[in-house]
Structure formats: structure tokens, C-alpha cells
Amino acid sequence: MGMCLPCLGGAADDVVPTPDPETRRRQLAEAAEKRQKETTYRGVKNPEAVERKKKKQEEMKKQEMTTSPSGGGGGLKVGLLI
Is the full-model pTM beyond 0.85? Predict the structure, then answer.
């Protein structure tokens, strides 16, 4: 007594095993990140240049904050009139 249905004989070999939940979660996260990058840079010819420009602006902003007058830097000095 072999198999009941001959068309289902090789069906067990064709089944792809499902990865464990942790692997599946990682794959889904990577796919979501890839989709997000693609939509972020849609229409941009050079995304690396955009990233460099954004980082440079952030660095300049940080530097501006550290050299601000409230940070003890050289701002205007106010004299006291008596």
C-alpha cells in the first residue's frame, strides 16, 4: 500500500521550511528598511551626496550651538553704567 493519490507523491519534497521566528523577524525588518530607503531617495540621483550634505549641516549646527554666546563664548559684552 503506497500512496493514495499519485499526484501528491512528490509534494512533501516541494515544501519550503518556514524559518524560525527570529530569522523571519530579521528578514522582515531588513525588507522594511530597504523599502524605506527606496522611498526616501526616490528621484535622487546621488543619495550618498545627500547623506553627506545632511551630516555636514548637522555638524555645523552642533558647532554653532557650542560656540554660541550662552555657551560662554565671545558674544557681545554688556557694560554696567553707574
Answer: no
